[in-house]
Design goal:
Structural class: mainly beta
Strand order of the largest sheet: 1-2-3-6-7-10-11-13-14-15
Shape: elongated
Order of helices and strands: HEEEEEEEEEEEEEEE
Number of domains: 2
Helix content: under 10%
Number of strands: 15
Strand content: over 45%
Distance between the termini: 62 Å
Length: 399
């Protein structure tokens, strides 16, 4: 029994000695490598501060507000559809900032970055016809008559007021290591793989008001003048018209957080960092965000038909007789749910680097799948995307 115990103890001691030897060799190698890197990188800044901006094209996938008015004729073909004026902002000027810290003699880089953008779209469009004034003649007898110039009471029109505002913010906290581009045959290039956390927040508000009268028209009435030889006289009948009103208020948002992975690389093309270097930069990023998606909408539709005043005789007008068709009062549609949002992106561009100063420009894209609820009465997932040209300036400190 003691021999078996001694054998196990010997095997344990051998494994421990082997592990200690390997660890010592690895530690010694890393110290030598770190010392060499320290000698090579003594002049490199330990902190980089980057400021920039991006002209982002925004995705727009939310439902358009297209109410139906009961017993109302279609809009005149000369008028444009109100829906074309309801679109969300197409572009946003984003502000970006990033701070990176690389300890002296180390390949590790720790960074924090932020991107923020805000935009507003306002539309106030009035479309209408301009009917001319017309003559109204009332004849009482052979010698007594009145002729008036009458201004129309109404006109065909369509008013659209739409205001949509959106804002977005993306924060990243990452730790990465430069693994070089030796596998691609680039000796002096850099290639950093980073892991971290991404936080994203998107907000959108819409306020839309529609008014229209699609079918105003002039009508006439014939009646027999009792004071003359039986004669049918054509007179004006007050103009009937529709009065349609609709409005929508909507608030939508997404707040999420999750793990992220990125790869940023740079390969020199011309020159060196002492006298000025031009490099080709590129990168890829991915994240999986877990968060809450919210939407709150309210809308109302009302349609009225005014039959007008029947003028059987000028002295005996009948009152207006409006007929009202009002859509049912819609309750607030409030939705809130937890969602998982995949996120992918990338960039490519050129940079000019001289000592502790760097200027970069290129094209960047970031897409968040099914991040927002773009529906009105029911949920509808829509993507959120930001893509467009960017530029930045970086300054190195320390080293």
């Amino acid at each position: 029994m003691s021999e078996l115990t001694n054998a196990r103890a010997n095997r344990t001691n051998f494994r421990f000695q082997l592990l200690a030897t390997v660890s010592a060799i690895a530690l010694l190698s890393s110290m030598v490598g770190a010392a060499k890197a320290s000698d090579d990188d003594n002049d490199h800044p330990t902190i980089w501060i980057e400021l920039g901006g991006q002209l982002s094209r925004l995705d727009d996938g939310q439902d358009v507000f297209a109410p139906e008015f009961p017993n109302s004729p279609p809009r005149p073909s000369t008028f444009s559809s109100s829906q074309k004026f309801e679109k969300s902002p197409l572009y946003s000027v984003d502000e970006t900032g990033k701070i990176s810290f690389q300890p002296s003699g180390s390949d590790w880089v720790f960074s924090a970055s932020v991107r923020y953008g805000r935009s507003v779209s306002k539309k106030d469009v009035n479309q209408q016809t301009y009917p001319k004034s017309f003559l109204t003649k009332w004849i009482y007898s052979q010698v007594n008559h009145v002729t008036r110039i009458k201004v129309p009471l109404a006109a065909k029109f369509a008013d659209t007021r739409a205001q949509t505002s959106e804002s977005h913010a993306v924060l990243d906290f990452q730790a990465g290591k430069d693994i070089g581009l030796g596998m691609l045959g680039v000796v002096d290039g850099s290639s950093a793989v980073s892991l971290g956390v991404r936080v994203a927040q998107f907000n959108r508000k819409s306020n839309i008001a529609l008014k229209s009268d699609p079918d105003w028209h002039r009508q006439y009435k014939y009646f027999t003048n009792p004071y003359l030889i039986p004669t049918r006289i054509k007179i004006d009948k007050a103009e009937p018209y529709h009065s349609n009103v609709a409005n929508l208020q909507a608030t939508r948002s997404f707040h999420g957080i999750g793990p992220s992975l990125s790869w940023n690389a740079s390969a020199p093309l011309l020159g060196d960092t002492k006298g000025g270097e031009v490099a080709f930069d590129w990168g890829l990023n991915a994240a999986l965000l877990f968060g809450r998606q919210k939407a709150k909408t309210r809308h109302q539709t009302t349609g009225r038909y005014h039959t007008g005043t029947q003028l059987a005789h000028p002295s005996l007008p009948q009152p207006f007789r409006p007929i009202t068709f009002q859509g049912p009062a819609t309750p607030d549609h409030t939705r809130s749910r937890m969602v998982t949002v995949p996120n992918v992106g990338g960039f490519a561009g050129l940079s000019f680097h001289v000592e502790n100063f760097k200027v970069s420009a290129g094209y960047r894209a970031d897409l968040f799948f099914s991040a927002m609820d773009g529906g009105i009465d029911a949920a509808k997932n829509e993507n959120v995307g930001f893509y467009g040209p960017f530029a930045s300036v970086s300054v190195g400190i320390g080293g």
